[in-house]
Structure prediction request, 331 residues.
Amino acid sequence: MRRRPCLGRHGFSLIELLLVLILLGLIAGVAAPATGRLLDQLAFRKETGALLAQLRAARLLATGKGRAVSVGITGHNRWQTEGSDEPQPLASSETLAVHFDPATITFYPEGFATPAIIRVSRGKKAARFTIDPLTGLPVRES
Amino acid sequence: MRPLAIAPLNTRGITLFELLVAVLLLGLVSTMIYSMFDVSVRFSSKGEKRLEELAREQGLLELIGHQVNDAWHDVKMRRIRAVKKGDTFQLYTRFPLLHRDAGLVLAIYRYDEADHALYYTEKRDFYNADYTPEFVPNLDEMRLLGRFARPLTLAYATGSDVVTVGFGEEHYQFVPRCHMEEVSVEGLI
Prediction:
C-alpha cells in the first residue's frame, strides 16, 4: 500500500521552484547594476578623498615648516613645491580628471591659501571644491 | 487507512497575523533607531558647519591683523594709508595674500551685504593714479574670500588709525604696529 505523505512535508512543486527562480533572477537583475554604480561611486570618492588629503597635507606642511607650499597639476600629474625647491611628483590617478583654477594653489605658513576652484570628474561623476583662502581647507561645493 | 496527523502545538509554526505583527513591530523599532541616528548626524553636521564658520571668521581676523600690522605708514601724515568708503575698504600693506612676492600692494575688500560675502583683490601697481579712495572694483574681477553667517562690518577711524572688524555684535580692533611702537616709546619717556 502507498504511503500518503504527511501534511506539510510534501516538498516543492515545479511551479513553486520556477517562481522562486524567477523572483531571484529579478532581484539579481535589479541589484547588479545598482551594485556596479555603488562600486563606481566608492572608487570616485576614494580618489577624490586622496586628492583632498594631498591638499590638506600640503597645508599642514606649510604651517608646520613655516614655508609656502604649492600644489599644481600638469595633465594628469600632480606635483608639489616647498618654497623654492624643485617640484616633487605626487601620487596621481589616471582615471580621475582634475582641474585647478588657477593651475597652482599655494598654502602659506599662516594657514592661508590662494583662492582656487577644483573640478574633479570620472566618467559621468563630477564634483566641485573650493580652497577657502582664509582657512586653507578644501570645501565641497556640489 | 491512517488518520491525518495533527502537528503538536509547539511545531505548528506561525500564523500570517503573527508574522504581520512581528514585521510591524520591527518596522516601528527600526524607524525609532533611524530617527535617533538621523538627529545625531544632523547635529554633528550642524556643529561641523559652525566650526567651519568660526575658522573662517578667525582666518579673516588673522589676515586683517597681519595686513594692519604690516600696513604702509605714511611718515608725513603720521598714519597708515587706509580708506573706508561705502562697502569698500582699501589698505596699503606689505602682507599680500595673492601676490606674496609683490612686497607692497593695495589690498581692496568689498562686502556684499545681500549675500554676506566678502570679496578681495590686490593691486601690485598700487602707485597707479586710478586707485583713488573712490575706486571700486567690480565684484566679478575680485576673488571671493568667504561667506559669513553673521553680518560683517569693516571700519577705519582716521584719527586713531584703528581698523575695526565686526561679526554681528562682536567687534575686534587692530592697531598698526607703528602706533604700538609710538605708544611704548611714549610710555618709556
In short: Chain A has a mean pLDDT of 87. The longest helix of chain A spans residues 14-65.
